[in-house]
Amino acid sequence: MLVHTNSYLRQGILGVSYFHQRECQLSCRVTCTVPFLSASLDALEPSGLIKLHPQANSRHKGFRYTKISSQIMEKVGNNLVIEENSRELPFSSAYETAMEALSSLITRQKRGERSAVGGKYDKLDRMLMYIKILGLEEHIASLKIIHVAGTKGKGSTCTFCEAILRECGFRTGLFTSPHLIDVRERFRLDGLDISEDKFLLYFWDCWNQLKEKLTEDLPMPPLFQFLTVLAFKIFICEKVDVAIIEVGLGGKNDSTNVIKEPVVCGVTSLGMDHVEVLGNTLGEIASHKAGIFKPQIPAFTVPQLSEAMDALQKRAGELMVPLKVVAPLDCEKLDGLKLSLSGDHQYINAGLAVSLCKSWLRSTGNWDKLFQNDSQEDNLPEAFLRGLSTARLSGRAQIVHDCSLKSNSSSEVENSSGDLVFYLDGAHSPESMEACARWFSNAVNGSKNLPASSYYLNMGNMEELWGNGYIHHGKERESNKISKKVLLFNCMEVRDPQIILPQLVSTCATSGTHFSKAIFVPSMSTYNKVTSAASIPLDVPARDLSWQFNLQRIWEKIIHGKDAELGKSSKMDSAENLPPREFLYEDVSHCRPADKYFACSAVIPSLPLTINWLRDSVRENPSLRIQVLVTGSLHLVGDVLKLLRR
């Protein structure tokens, strides 16, 4: 029996000893197996990455271990140990191999279409069978889970919950989706993305056990189902005290809804999204979200429109669920601190997170143990305040300064180019776009100082700002800059840009924020491949830009009040198609629709070309500040982050 041992100190919370010994048995029945790969994977994985002592008379393929502190891999009573092969492939190669394997699980079906997965079982039945194959059934029941559904704010609410409970001293596991740069972002342990070595360990274990049990009626799980069972495996093996699980899509039929007895459930703000799957009315959508409710398990939600609230309460009544509606967090309760996730809508998410964490602590018997000396329950404990002021989530109301043109060593060089600042938010529904527009307007127009809870991360060519995102440049510096606000946009074709683009423009306009230009680009990420942070396709082939020209047409109609005849080729692939530099300075009066020339918008054939064009623009004009709102798609946001991290 293989044993994975890790020892570490823990606080004395209920059910956790001061010296917490983790032992995850590594066998076919239990969760942390180091299996021997089947022959069917030979085409996917490099061979000879790990060798075993002769007693094993077997070879493990597929990945290697880098140094893993405090880990011992041994076979009790048989002296079977794993040692590194001196001729191992680079670790990145092993990781990219895993990404290729993951990519093979993408079904390529459109949302709303009948499942492309064969077999006689439905999705949740298959999920239960996968869990049984991996020996996770009993172990999932022992996880103390917070399960969260909703249309918008799921990721933020889960992130707040994780940070709060981690600050309370618990070992946390967080499963969210989608990822922006690397798939490991979906799995956080104690607030950090899972390491590559651990990811590969658990990934190949799941992969091989499932591969061995394939039948005509039980194929390999599609991507999200696989990642969901992988999350359960990771959290069980890592002995987390709490697992915060974000629903992928909907609730009732979501892959995460194999959770039978969560500690508490939450439903964030509801709106019209994924109608092709969840239904055409708010009531139908709410019914799907309420599908995560379990009999007599406490649940919390935020203020909803009456149609949505009626559906939630109806389902709660059927299951005798004590459903409570939570008011947005009162900012005065933050004791002078600021929420680390910016935007007024985050007070709604923070209020829900606080209620979920309090309920979890009470249900697990830890509230009185941790906070028995707190005289007033309405006051937020210090651990809650720390969590709310330090939680982080990429791609949601995030500000990134592009520092590729700057030099820290010379103020003269510092002033030799303009400023290029990216405002990143993956909003893609009407409601989230409205919140995004309010945040962007406040961020570019506000004069608030950087919150004490925020900080910069120097990462290559960029400085990354976590927190509310308000930056004070000083009056003198502000007066010397020509500010241009640019929209960088793309969205999936299942979205309705005729709704979300006007929503963005009108909400910004009410705050006095107006875009100088809009640029429409295709995303680099494809929906048929899982990529890592290291795989950035800079040489992008010619793409069909019909959708981007359609977006431009809608934009021009918003600006001019009439349809625009663009009349351009739907395929472009060279820098010759970049707009001239003076394009940034032209106002709407330069538009000549009759000549098919538009001064308000442009289609650029690739994102790398776009970033370089923006950089060249500020390089050539030291007095220029370009503030770029990147929105419409989390894929686009992730692609921009990848390019800026180079």
UniProtKB/TrEMBL annotation:
It catalyses: (6S)-5,6,7,8-tetrahydrofolyl-(gamma-L-Glu)(n) + L-glutamate + ATP = (6S)-5,6,7,8-tetrahydrofolyl-(gamma-L-Glu)(n+1) + ADP + phosphate + H(+). It is an enzyme of class 6 (ligase). GO terms for molecular function: ATP binding; metal ion binding; tetrahydrofolylpolyglutamate synthase activity. Pathway: Cofactor biosynthesis; tetrahydrofolylpolyglutamate biosynthesis. InterPro entries: Folylpolyglutamate_synth (IPR001645), Folylpolyglutamate_synth_CS (IPR018109), Mur-like_cat_sf (IPR036565), Mur_ligase_C_dom_sf (IPR036615). Its cofactor is a monovalent cation. One of its GO terms (cellular component) is mitochondrion. It comes from the Eukaryota. Its EC number is 6.3.2.17. Keywords: ATP-binding, Ligase, Magnesium, Metal-binding, Nucleotide-binding, One-carbon metabolism. The keyword Metal-binding applies. One of its GO terms (biological process) is one-carbon metabolic process. PANTHER family: FOLYLPOLYGLUTAMATE SYNTHASE, MITOCHONDRIAL, FOLYLPOLYGLUTAMATE SYNTHASE-RELATED. NCBIfam families: folC (TIGR01499). Belongs to the folylpolyglutamate synthase family. This is Folylpolyglutamate synthase. It comes from Davidia involucrata.
